[in-house]
Amino acid sequence: MEKDRKGEGRVRIMLKNSTSAVLSLALGMLTGVSIAQSTANDEEAPAPPAPPPNCKVSDFRNAVLDYPEADREKRALAWIEQEGKNCSLDRLVLIRNNRNQWMGTGDSVRVASAVEGLIETAAKDDPATINGLFNSPPPPAPKKDK
User: Fold this and answer.
1) pLDDT tens profile 2-27
2) How far apart are CA 23 and CA 89, in angstroms?
3) What angle do CA 34, 35, 38 make, to 5 degrees?
4) What angle (nearest 5°) sits at the alpha carbon of residue 127, between those of residues 107 and 51?
5) How does pLDDT run across 70-88, given as a tens digit for each residue?
6) Radius of gyration over every alpha carbon of the chain, rounded to an integer in angstroms
7) Would you call 116 exposed, middle or buried from its count of C-beta atoms within 10 A (0-12, 13-18, 19+)?
8) In sequence order, what are the residues at sequence separation of 6 or more whose Cβ sits closer than 8 angstroms to the Cβ of residue 73?
9) Where do the domains of the chain lie?
10) How remote is the C-alpha of 32 from its chain's centroid?
11) Strand, coil or helix: what is 22?
12) In terms of CB atoms within 10 Å, which of 22, 69, 99, 116 comes out highest?
């Protein structure tokens, strides 16, 4: 009978081990499925948009101020060509608003047009922004006397 008890003990241990193995296998399979599903969902979901690149306004300022006014137009146009596409709308507006002061007599219609073109592109054809760029604001309403 002792042999039977030892045999029963072995069967119980084997059952416990097989149950653990089956549970481990099932858990592993479920985890694998959930990982595969999350990977598939990640591939289907669109990637979040990349943050907009940004230029340094100080780089534009230095690019034109480091040279005599006769060379500033050429320097400004070169900087705009190389770096302008990396500027966000707010940075382009800063450049536009300060361009005259930084460029002095080196400022030109070509530089103004290049900056405005970048602003139009950055505005993505937003009518309000384009309107503000090329139109004067309406005059204030006249005050009514009491």
Assistant:
1) 455 555 555 444 444 444 544 454 44
2) 58
3) 85
4) 75
5) 999 999 999 999 999 999 9
6) 35
7) middle
8) 103, 106, 107, 108, 110, 111
9) 1-44, 57-134
10) 33
11) helix
12) 99
Tokens describing residue 11: 């069967």
- In angstroms, the Cα distances linking 133 to 70, 76, 101 are 27, 20, 19
Rounded distance between C-alpha atoms, residue 136 and residue 57, angstroms = 25
Q: How many residues does the chain have?
A: 146
Tell me what pLDDT residue 35 has.
Answer: 43
In the block, tokens 């139109």 appear at 135
Tell me the pTM.
0.58
Quickly tell me which residue has 């002095």 as its tokens: 104
Tokens for 17?
A: 């081990």
DSSP 42-55: HHHSPPPPPPPP--
Q: Which amino acid is at 18?
A: S
* DSSP states along 86-143: G--HHHHHHHHHHHHHHHGGG--HHHHHHHHHHHHHHHTT-HHHHHHHHSPPPPPPPP
Cα–Cα distance for residue pair 121/115, rounded to 1 Å: 10
* The pair of three-digit structure tokens given for residue 133, joined into one six-digit string: 């760029």
